[in-house]
Design a protein that fits this description.
Elements lengths: L27 E5 L5 H5 L4 E8 L2 E8 L2 E7 L4 H16 E2 L4 E2 L7 E10 L9 E9 L15 H11 L9 E4 L2 H7 L4 E8 L20 H6 L2 E2 L2 E7 L2 H11 L2 E11 L4 E2 L3 H16 L3
Parallel strand pairs: 1-4, 1-7, 7-13, 8-10, 10-12
Antiparallel strand pairs: 2-3, 3-4, 5-6, 7-12, 8-9, 8-13, 11-12, 13-14
Helix pairs in contact: 2-6
Pfam family, one: PNP_UDP_1
Protein name: Uridine phosphorylase
Enzyme class: transferase
């Protein structure tokens, strides 16, 4: 039996942070970072059956072209992903009354739609990136036993290439779901490795008033390649989503609209249009269109 202090429920029986009960979610779930982006997706739904919000976690579930889909905001960073995926898994794979894991487990399909900056001049603003791998620079997933799902060869190559300071923790590399990759893939999408940082400023190489540990890290990442896969972009959620999903038996895929190019110093003139196009594409693929 899982103790009350470990799996915290609200008085209405919903999971603590997400404020959801099992019947509130579909098995196909879209993650966004910004709570205001939830309705940018659900505005296309034929109907919405459920809506709730607690803190930065906003959830709406409805029907799009006959497909039941949940859209949820996760907020920013790997720490929030730790909350969201563990609580979603509890909703489908733990009996919340008996507090026992279920004998028959359910796999969720989780697709992140986000915005990101590209590290390469040849991946322009307003393009789409599919993350074949998430490369975690944040160290969150190292709290779990990840050897069975992580790619040690990529990790070793990255540590060597960047002369990584191991005091920051060993990076981890996790593959996307091949099932979702086949459903969503398109000739329009760039593919590669998405690096996931634990912060927005120093961890992503931005310098305001504080010096950073490795001023050359971004250029090192720009030059990194493993078996033809290069680091395409840098953001704050993908590797954590891939890692926890793989450990818990869920399918996960991360898609990003590129709104900034760090190599060329450019920013999209209409980032909302790029995101809307990625939303429409993903919804239609999920609905089988």
């Amino acid at each position: 039996m899982i103790q009350n202090s470990e799996l915290i429920l609200n008085p209405d029986g919903s999971v603590y942070h997400l404020n959801l009960r099992p019947e509130h979610i579909a098995h196909d779930i879209i993650f966004v970072g910004d709570q205001n982006r939830v309705e940018k997706i659900t505005q296309f739904f034929d109907s919405i059956e459920f809506s709730t919000q607690k803190r930065e976690f906003k959830t709406q579930t409805g029907i799009y072209k006959g497909k039941r889909i949940t859209v949820m905001s996760t907020g920013i960073g790997p720490d929030n992903i730790d909350i969201v995926i563990n609580e979603l898994d509890a909703l489908v794979n733990i009996d919340l009354e008996t507090r026992q894991p279920k004998e028959n487990l359910t796999s969720l399909n989780i697709i992140r739609i986000g915005t990101s900056g590209s590290l390469h001049a040849d991946i322009p603003v307003d393009s789409f990136v599919m993350s074949k791998f998430g490369l975690g620079l944040d160290n969150m997933l190292r709290s779990y036993l990840i050897d069975k799902v992580s790619n040690a060869a990529i990790e070793d190559a990255f540590v060597t290439h960047t002369n990584w300071d191991i005091r920051k923790g060993r990076p981890y590399a996790i593959a996307c779901s091949e099932v979702l990759e086949k459903i969503i893939e398109s000739d329009k999408m760039f593919k590669g490795i998405t690096a996931t940082a634990g912060g927005f400023y120093g961890p992503q190489g931005r310098v305001l008033r504080l010096n950073i540990q490795d001023e050359e890290l971004n250029s090192k990442m720009d030059n990194f390649s493993f078996n033809g896969e290069k680091i395409t972009n840098l953001e704050m959620e993908t590797a954590a989503i891939y890692g926890l999903s793989a450990l818990l038996g869920h399918n996960a895929l991360s898609l990003n609209a590129i709104i900034a190019n760090r190599a060329s110093g450019t920013f999209s003139e209409d980032p909302y249009k790029a995101v809307d196009e990625l939303i429409a594409y993903t919804l239609n693929k999920l609905a089988g269109n």
